[in-house]
Design goal:
alpha/beta; Rossmann fold; 4-stranded parallel β-sheet; 9 helices; 8% strand
Length: 262
């Protein structure tokens, strides 16, 4: 059948690669001395030790920051960056393979990423700040389906997209709705922002942050009282605090400061 051709092709590629590796090791065993093999294993052990130390350091860096005990300085900034690029992707991959508390591990990654982004001192122009929102924020009962952008929202009050629309207009930032990770990446590619505030679930946020290399992304988890991808909502006050914090626009005196968020 056509559907299993990719499966067959990939399977044979893996089998052939393993066979070649087995033959290579067998041939090498006949040419190399015991001393050579010892050196190979010592080198491998040294490399594993470096990886082990990096993972341990990364673990404690993540733990400190999610416990609100760390201050982002020049030294631990590089440590936290290493943890986000090496340790957390490994942990997320293992969590996915064994289906072990995936959302909880993803939340830790998002929280650590946010701590790092908060410490970067970012101040972007409002028009260079992009807010990405999931389509599931719109009420499933709404008669006016939003397809192009927030300007399509009739502000009927059935969901909080109307409030977000007012917030976006007030601060002059750009906002787009995304149907998923592919849509979000296309939006970022098309708009070319300097900074992104993304609202999504744990899965989409964690994968999106890892996919967007070189662009700072602050993640806000949406609330899902009706389950995933249906009638979700976000904390408007927190979204406003983050827009205030990361843009160069002056914060009105009546609004909540970033210290309250922390």
């Amino acid at each position: 059948m056509e559907w299993n051709k990719p499966f067959q092709k990939l399977s044979w590629i893996v089998i052939v690669i393993l066979l070649l590796l087995m033959l290579a090791v067998t041939v090498a065993a006949g040419f190399f001395s015991i001393v050579t093999f010892q050196m190979i294993f010592y080198t491998a052990a040294a490399c594993l030790m470096l990886v082990f130390m990096s993972l341990v350091i990364s673990f404690f860096a993540i733990y400190r920051f999610i416990s609100n005990e760390g201050q982002l300085t020049g030294k631990n900034k590089s440590t936290l960056r290493m943890a986000l690029k090496i340790f957390m992707p490994i942990l997320l991959a293992v969590s996915n393979i064994f289906s072990y508390r995936k959302d909880e591990i993803r939340r830790v990654y998002i929280q650590a990423n946010n701590a790092y982004v908060l410490g970067m001192g970012i101040k972007a122009e409002p028009e260079k700040t992009l807010v990405i929102l999931p389509h599931c924020l719109q009420s499933s009962k709404c008669r006016y389906r939003i397809r192009e952008g927030l300007e399509d929202c009739q502000q009927c009050g059935s969901c909080n997209i109307g409030d977000i629309k007012q917030l976006i207009q007030r601060y002059g930032v750009h906002a787009e709705l995304a149907t998923g990770g592919t849509s979000a990446r296309k939006t970022i590619k098309d708009t070319k922002p300097e900074f992104v505030i993304a609202v999504a679930c744990e899965r989409d946020l964690s994968s999106g942050i890892m996919d967007v290399r070189g662009l700072p992304v602050y993640g806000l988890l949406n609330k899902r009282p009706n389950g995933p991808c249906r009638d979700t909502f976000t904390d408007i006050a927190e979204l406003e605090r983050m827009i205030q914090y990361f843009t160069v626009r002056e914060v009105p005196e009546s609004n909540v400061s970033i210290e309250e968020h922390n």
